[in-house]
Recover the amino acids of this structure.
């Protein structure tokens, strides 16, 4: 079984500044995916970014990027130029990558509540 | 077009009742899931179905039973509702072999 830990229950950042959300995980799997999901007050789960464990290059999606350290089992999310619309709960999640894959549920961390100060 | 839909979005009921939450996906996916998000926002997988076969059954009470009439639907039946069942329940779907799960809008269940 795997575990995902988000040690920051809440983070606050000034609009236009940069913020980093932390995530660590524990697994015996060698192949897996890692994700960051955003959940705004509407409660819709929105995929922000994903990382395949076999890829050394860190994923980026516009203002969102990750710092993936496989040996340290760390997967942080950096949000640059923070905007008011970034205010939400952010969840780190883990998914094993099997050849038959896709039937596994995501393992989530407990989430970080991100506040954007105008 | 809504990819994954759930009905109802809100459900208020009394302890001891039996209720169902419906989920439909129009993406042609063959795997569907149910997640529970508790009052502290913690999300946990409950079930997944792949081609009408239960793949994961986490340690949830047997009062909860998923029912899949066809590949596009995975309904969640809950018997003898308890206060602790109050939560947001999310349905999701994915294509076999794909990493990406598409989530429905969630159903907020309140048991009084």
């Amino acid at each position: 079984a795997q575990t995902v830990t988000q040690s920051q229950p809440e983070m606050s950042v000034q609009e236009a500044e940069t913020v980093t959300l932390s995530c660590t995980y524990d697994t015996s799997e060698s192949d897996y995916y890692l994700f960051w999901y955003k959940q705004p007050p509407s409660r819709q789960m929105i995929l922000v970014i994903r990382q395949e464990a076999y890829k050394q290059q860190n994923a980026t999606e516009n203002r969102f990027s990750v710092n993936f350290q496989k040996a340290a089992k760390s997967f942080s999310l950096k949000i640059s130029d923070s905007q008011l619309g970034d205010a939400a709960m952010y969840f780190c999640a883990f998914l094993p990558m099997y050849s038959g894959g896709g039937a596994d549920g995501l393992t989530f961390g407990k989430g970080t509540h991100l506040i954007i100060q105008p | 077009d809504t990819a994954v839909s759930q009905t109802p979005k809100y459900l208020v009921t009394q302890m001891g009742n039996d209720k169902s939450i419906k989920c439909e996906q129009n993406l042609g996916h063959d795997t569907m899931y149910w997640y529970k998000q508790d009052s502290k926002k913690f999300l946990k997988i409950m079930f997944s179905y792949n081609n009408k076969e239960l793949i994961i059954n986490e340690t949830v009470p047997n009062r909860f039973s998923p029912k899949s009439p066809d590949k596009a639907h995975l309904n969640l039946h809950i018997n003898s509702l308890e206060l602790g069942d109050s939560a947001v329940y999310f349905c999701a779907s994915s294509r076999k072999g794909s990493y990406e799960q598409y989530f429905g809008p969630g159903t907020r269940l309140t048991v009084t």
Chain A has a mean pLDDT of 94. Residues 3-117 of chain A form a domain with the Immunoglobulin-like fold (CATH 2.60.40.10). The first strand of chain A starts at residue 3 and ends at 5.
